[in-house]
Amino acid sequence: MRTRTRVVSALTAGGALLALSGCGAADMTKQASPYANAGAKTVTLSVQSWVGAQADVAVAEYLLDHELGYRVDKVQIDEVPAWDALSQGRVDAIMEDWGHPDQEKLYIDDKKTVARGGDVGVTGHIGWFVPTYFAKKHPDVTDWKNLNKYADQLRTPESGDKGQLMDGSPSFLTNDKALVKNLGLDYQVVFAGSEAAQITQIKQFAKQQKPFLTYWYKPQWLFDKVPMTEVKLPKYKEGCDADPAKIKCEYPHTPLQKYFNADFAKNGGKAAEFLKKFNWSEADQNEVSLNIADKKMSPQDAAEKWVSENESKWRAWIPK
After folding, report:
1. CA–CA separation, 189 vs 175, rounded Å?
2. Residue 4's pLDDT band (boundaries 50, 70, 90)?
3. In three state form, how does the secondary structure of the chain look?
4. pLDDT at site 32
């Protein structure tokens, strides 16, 4: 997750999910999908490593297959390399991007090999969170200016003599190390390794009612299982994150976007038309994500369940 500004992303818990995709995956940009550009009835989608993006892909795949007769191939690629794969036609679409202005300028404005695909319908936001049970006992912890006061309580063996700020995958773009330094915080950024590992750690802390400080993002189904309260960082202003080394502001709220290979956007037929229309709510995405990551449904089964219960929503996406 991000932008998952520079996150990101995505999007996990559970073996079923990891079988499909996970943080820290190998860079596959040099591997063309065996089905990419194989024919008019094949669509290749980039699968990002967080469950919200995987929910997007699962529902898109189900409808492309069952309603439009397309074969869908999925390729797992980290966020930034996915743009290069998209530009080269190794994938046709990225279904959820949290904001990569450098890539947008290079591939959309300069090379013109990537086209905008429209809003996903979900607004993403990255932030720092503490468990609500800790925030209720210590309300002032939700102001970043008071974090050093609680550093001792937030220490872990991994963070040494500093408080721990837990991040997910090193592949996510994050401002956290710069924020800790520039805000003068007595904290150490510690990477859990993946979204799934981070979720596991958060659940363990919550089960023991231990305090923690974590990088996290919305929308995300875990908030329904472990209520968390955001720590207020200095307000975001346009341009405050322009220099990654000098960042002192919170992450922005980002309408999540789809991006297409430029040729696919023009000549992708009903598949491209459908993906442009694909637009759902945070509640819809969280419902599918929860079924995948927490209830251990396969992405295909979670998508089928949502599709069977929400025809009034997705029917408008299907080209005539």
Report:
1. 10
2. very low
3. CCCECECCCCCCCCHHHHHHCCCCCCCCCCCCCCCCCCCCCEEEEEECCCHHHHHHHHHHHHHHHHCCCCEEEEEECCHHHHHHHHHCCCCCEEEEECCCHHHHHHHHHHCCCEEEEEEEEEEEEEEEEEEHHHHHHCHHHHEHHHHHHHCHHHECCCCCCCEEEEECCCCCCCCHHHHHHHCCCCEEEEECCCHHHHHHHHHHHHHCCCCCEEEEEECCHHHHCCCEEEEECCCCCCCCCCCHHHCCCCCCEEEEEEEEEHHHHHHCHHHHHHHHHCCCCHHHHHHHHHHHHCCCCCHHHHHHHHHHHCHHHHHHHCCC
4. 46
* Chain segment 229-273, per-residue pLDDT in tens: 999 999 999 999 999 899 999 999 999 999 999 999 999 999 999
> Which pLDDT band, with edges at 50, 70 and 90, does 39 fall under?
very low
Cα 188 from chain centroid (whole Å): 23
Residue 30 has pLDDT above 50, yes or no: no
Q: So what's the pLDDT on residue 213?
A: 98
- In tens, the pLDDT along 162-171 reads 999 999 988 7
Burial 158-184 (b: 16+ CB within 10 A, else e): ebeebbbbbbbbebbbbbbbbbbeebe
Dihedral sign (CA 282, 284, 285, 289): positive
Considering the entire predicted model, what is its pTM?
0.78
